[in-house]
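Now for a specimen:

…
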Amino acid sequence: MHTDTVRPAVTALRLSAFKSHRGVTLPLTRLTLLSGESGSGKSSALHAYEILARLGSGESLARAVGEVAGSPAACVPAGARPDEQGRRGFRIGCTVDGPVGPVSLDLAVQAEPELRIVGERLTGGGETLLTTALIDPTRPAVQAAWYTAGATPVTRAPLPDDRLGTSLLPLRVAGKTPGQRLVLAAAEQVVVALRSAFVCDPRPEAMRGVGAVGAGTRGRDGDGARAEGRLRSSCDNLPAVLERTSQECARRHAVLVAAVREACAGPVEGLRAVARQAGGAAGGAAGAGVAAGPGGASGARAGAASGAGVRAVLDRGELGELPVEQLGDGELRFLGLALVLLTGPDVLAMDPVGEVPSAHQQMTVLADGMDRCMDPRQARELVSLALRMTERGHVRLLGTVRDPSAAEGLPGVQVLHLGV
């Protein structure tokens, strides 16, 4: 087992045939940064991970691919030609380490002429635990066979071709034989690891209240009440979440303030949420008696639109308070990413694995363009913060950077250089 604890974690990402990648396997540690020139496939690797994560959370294939890549054709390797039936597709997979040991999941997806999973393989413990195959192209189903190791070696049944079969196994496998129990344990390990992912892409324009950000965009923000009061992928509701986190854990809030102090120009003595007055002006501090409710959870977006809710401000000491929306793009992105690294699934708009104790989970943050808009000093401080948090074992990070020098000399940071 390659993980430091029994918490399931994705330790390898396979891009067998996906966008610009062919036959690529990326080993993933607690903190892995992908670097390379534009077009080298850094973002594509994160897209493949996110598609797997969404499928592991039970999303349909059409939604997972559509929201991440825009269209199925965008995932097909460049130059791939259709066969005699006009079919093209892509192949991705991963390895998940945990209590069962390494478990591998590999998918073959038909992108054209219709989107469907045409093959899935789950292996672990020296056994092939699940295989699926498209037998009848006229039916929206694949033939599945999973390991039984009883009187009948395998059990066969149809599964839908638009869902991840591994995530459906707990509903189909009885768990009566040792083989079935191995299948269930391996499937749970993979699903827990995939579901424990949060895509973070702080958008400065959204954090300033410019432009609406819909729920359900990258980051699996969910819809309605599920995302209320929890930080969204774009961090557009950061003030309301900051109000909550500053009250819940003073120690972590102090660490956040210290990190922001290193990243921002000028003095920083504090960071807090204050009531937004009519007309958009900041009022007094939102103290412990002001709870984050549905109105505050709309964050900067609702505040910009109606003047309600709260806004975040920096305490500059003798210079007074500075609303965070007046910070530079790099400072805003740093603030959003730092807040994510210092919190957990219960604070983020992600799909929590509620039935699994938090001590057995390990969140993975996916951060594309981690150093975007930042100067070298800010990027270095952010990587250092990520390293400190990943060393604690409850969070992992897979990010992309343009300049890998931010990680130079930092033990525990793996930098993978991708070529065009």
About this structure: The first helix runs from residue 42 to 56.
